[in-house]
Design brief:
Elements (H helix, E strand, L loop, with lengths): L1 H5 L15 H31 L11 H6 L8 H15 L5 H27 L7 H22 L7 E3 L7 E3 L3 H20 L7 H18 L2 H7 L10 H19 L8 H18 L3 H7 L1 H20 L9 H7 L4 H21 L5
Antiparallel strand pairs: 1-2
Helix pairs in contact: 2-4, 2-10, 4-5, 4-10, 4-11, 5-6, 5-11, 6-7, 6-11, 7-11, 7-13, 8-10, 8-11, 8-15, 11-12, 12-13, 12-15
Length: about 350
Amino acid sequence: MLEFLLVPLADDFKVFNLFRYLTFRTGGAMLTALFIGMWLGPRLIPWLRIRQGKGQPIREDGPQSHLLTKKGTPTMGGFLILISLFASTLLWADLSNQYVWVVLMVTGGFGLVGFYDDYKKVKRQSSKGVAGKMKLVFEFAIAAGAAWWIMALQTPELSGAVAVPFLKDTLIMIGMAFIGFGCLVIVGAGNAVNLTDGLDGLAIVPVMIAAACFGLIAYIVGNAVFSDYLQVHFVLGTGELAIICGALIGAGLSFLWFNAPPAMVFMGDTGSLALGGALGAIAVATKHELVLAIIGGLFVVEALSVIVQVISFKLTGKRVFRMAPIHHHYEQMGIPESTIVIRFWIVAVVLALIGLATLKLR
């Protein structure tokens, strides 16, 4: 919005030329989201605490320490992130760019699904919210619409194709099956982040790390010169997604301020599903779906630990982990929560560096 309003004035006021530059607007989006979140937090959190009463229900079969340390903490803190993210993006992004609207649609849609799940949990005072199958139906519907929209935006040689990391000029053309593939990426990312969100600060920092990586990827992929130099596929218009990534980082920092141990508020499904969906949609738009599995490898491991646990228990009656997702397994081993969180952050940084290496190693 600011670009549309201020760039025409650049002939008279040279300072407004800055709004032509994607890097400036990305930095502006990051700081704006941060300031909005820091202003909103002290107002939103007490309101959530009053409205929710007993706060987020704690799993009785989970770590017993959570029943003491986390009981009464309000949830739906994802609203703090989403309000900051949307407001900042609408201010700084080029709103004529359809990729921006695709990602915002997925983020908002997944956020609504997560909100309804959180609402059911709080209302019933139970850790069981909306039925898992029902959630997936809505998530796949939103993701299918986004994947179809992205295909319609891209050139014929890219539409319906999957890029392979480490191999230059390699595309696997899957046609309309790309909609199903895109759904799996977006829905998988949303639920993987949701499963990771189990300890104070555990999910938000890896999400910000992934957002920083995809902000760089979007900037490169959307720039004809840089994409040609690095031999990655040029996708016209995706550079604008760097602004959403910047806003996500700023909003995430403000949320971390209030989510740092001991957390004043939990993200809830409202935030975790939305942020994961946003990362998935950006990965699909920039043709870096497979790279997301590397950069977001921590989320993949968390999701796989749940899948392995469920399959093992159903087939053999035995559990592979003391508790799933895997961060709870380490809690049950007696490792302090803060130690687990920081070590997982380190793992997220390492995986992000490996993922970024795919841009050059071809």
